[in-house]
Design goal:
elongated, alpha+beta, Jelly Rolls, 8-stranded mixed β-sheet, about 270 residues, 6-stranded antiparallel β-sheet
Length: about 270
């Protein structure tokens, strides 16, 4: 006859090992996903330029200096009524104009940050400066009624480049709203105190507290389950710790627009 208590203990051990495997797998994924460190100060973008169509495009020159470039974020808005609308984004060397990376993005209704990540652009490819351009997709032309616009800022917030309209320089003190990044390893990302943009978190202590709360509550809950004690109290403790972590994370999520970024890959 099968011992019921033995089966319960075996089930608890299997559950613990499964959870441990999930944790190890998550940590392994963390070490392999692309991490990014921001280059230069971001530009928010308070004014809209558009509408983007086959006759109207906008762009921004960016200076990468000695850094490799792996990601550029732009703030784009779509206010039309069509179900499916695309814009074309291209990264070119500047001033030569050679296409380095490009791709199309399906726009979502409303205003959002679009994160364009791509195979790293070396200094040898770019020459230290690139032009990021947003225009209508050939064969899928945008119209004025689509109300697609890209956001920019006045008062020259970025000294390393300038905004372009229809392929020509705009006013010298105009810059598109953007964020640019280089890809780094996990160790370098962890060592950069103020660059947790991939997770949408500005302060490491937020995610540190969240992870510590999660593992502390999980260990307490598993310990009580393994000892055959009533896990209800410790389940409550675990849930309370999770809510505390979320309560600290949510204000960061609201304040940081990277949380609502639409991720797009360019080739």
């Amino acid at each position: 006859m099968i011992d019921r208590d033995h089966l319960l203990r075996l089930g608890r051990w299997i559950s613990m090992l499964a959870l441990l495997g999930v944790c190890i797998s998550s940590l392994f994924n963390w070490t392999n996903v692309p991490w990014f460190i921001q280059l230069d100060k971001p530009v928010t973008g308070s004014f809209s330029a558009g509408p983007i169509n086959q006759f109207f495009s906008v762009g921004q020159t960016l200076t990468t200096a000695a850094n490799e470039l792996s990601r550029v974020d732009l703030k784009i808005a779509y206010g039309g009524e069509r179900d499916s609308v695309f814009a074309h984004v291209e990264v070119k060397s500047f001033p030569k104009g050679r296409s380095l990376r490009s791709g199309s993005v399906e726009l979502v209704p409303g205003k959002a940050w679009y994160s364009f990540s791509f195979p790293r652009i070396t200094v040898d490819e770019s020459g230290g400066q690139v032009l990021v351009e947003v225009r209508s997709v050939p064969g899928r032309s945008l119209s004025d009624r689509d109300l697609v616009s890209v956001f920019y800022e006045h008062r020259d917030p970025y000294a390393g480049g300038r905004m372009y309209v229809r392929g020509m320089p705009a006013r010298a003190d105009w810059d598109l709203g953007f964020r640019m990044y280089k890809a780094v390893g996990l160790r370098e990302a962890l060592g950069s105190i103020k660059n947790w943009h991939l997770l949408g978190i500005e302060a490491p202590w937020v995610i540190g507290f969240g992870l510590a709360s999660f593992f502390f509550g999980l260990c307490l809950w598993l310990r009580r389950c393994m000892n055959g004690q009533n896990p209800q109290v410790w389940t409550v403790v675990f849930v309370v710790l999770m809510l505390a972590a979320v309560a600290l994370y949510v204000p960061e999520a609201i304040a940081n627009p990277a949380i609502s970024t639409v991720h797009v890959g360019l080739q």
